[in-house]
What does this fold into?
Amino acid sequence: MTKDEIVLANQDFLFPAVFHYYKEPLVIARAKDQFVYDTDGNQYLDFFGGILTISVGHCNDRVNAAVHQQIDRLEHVSTVFATEPQAALAKRLAEIAPGNVRQSFFTNSGTEANETAILAARCYTGSAEIIALRHSYHGRSALAMSLTGTSTWRLAGAMQPGIVHTANAYCYRCPFGLTYPSCNVQCARDLEDVIRSSTHGRVAGIIAEPIQGVGGFITPPREYFQIVAEIVRRHGGIFISDEVQTAWGRTGGKWWGIEQYGVQPDVITSAKGLGNGLPIGLTMATPEVAAGLRGASISTFGGNPVTTTAAKAVIDLVDEQNLMANAAETGAYLREKLDELREKHPLIGEVRGMGLMQALELVRSRTTKEPAVEETARLMEAARANRLLIGKGGMFGNVIRISPPLNIRQADVDAFARALDASLVQCAAGDVSPR
Ligand code: PMP
It folds into this structure.
């Protein structure tokens, strides 16, 4: 198909709900390592990694060699039979999971991973009531949308009962109008009142992203999760860490984002970067919580031999090549470059994130903090023209999300910073038209 035929077929034969970046959809033909190529052969530096999914580079040789071998040996039998790849991955995950979290349930996406976690929490505690955070994103099923605290991604009519939203730690736009640390982390302490006023007093648990991804890489202060975990546990609930974006070393130095906060979760969910592009969802729990999930459960494709082989290859690679350390070191270098850009460009209100998960919140004025929505759309277009792929997020659509593969080097960051700087200059000069 030609590029135009692909774009037309997208319009004619896909649900209009399928969402694209850019005025003209970018049609990607192939990718290797940190680069993707469009149908005209143009090379782009990919600092978004298919939404934080390309953890070890596009079409990674080692991961793909393992996949090729496995796909020719055994492609699918379903989980009513045991296979070595599923067992080997589960065993490996238990070695790296924090505390007593050691049993896995495999599905195909982050949404399903969270569905499984909520079901397990409800079965284990006997309570239906779940706490979620404002500005969160947990997926696109009716339940996951109901957990989601970002209105853009909640469809009217799809909402389910049994979920209440509590304040997140959005320090740049504090919901209480306070400033950290003199705020005494009021956003976390308010959960006590949320439980008292909006639940029956006993809850199944809380689901939270250590860094809110779709919400715009909102990064809470360390005490936030310690305080909310304590409150939830005191009311009978468990702590579910949604690590769909923050796992596999992305935040630097540690496998899991929640480890940065010194909180021990009862359940961890993940997807995205685990398969480096192959679809896999993971729910991990303590044996007690896992045992609470009553009744037989089948996921036809869950624990698939090919996707679990890919996932184990990704984990082994992150470990052997010390990519968690690289995420910390190269992430710190990236952060320096972003801080420099903030000095130069008044459009950048805040730089935030951890490791190789960094964001820029764009504002019309640093005083009023009015979200720079059109400017963000223009910056996306300018970056594309400069052959750089970055992500967009935040409830207002004014946050640039930066999440390159974990094995990038300083030279890639230099190329990224040059392209982003040029794009910011063009954007300020009005050289690119808005979306
Ligand atoms: N949780 C988080 C934190 C996510 O970022 C996402 C996807 N953006 C999901 C869940 C849902 O994952 P999926 O799209 O694989 O269903």
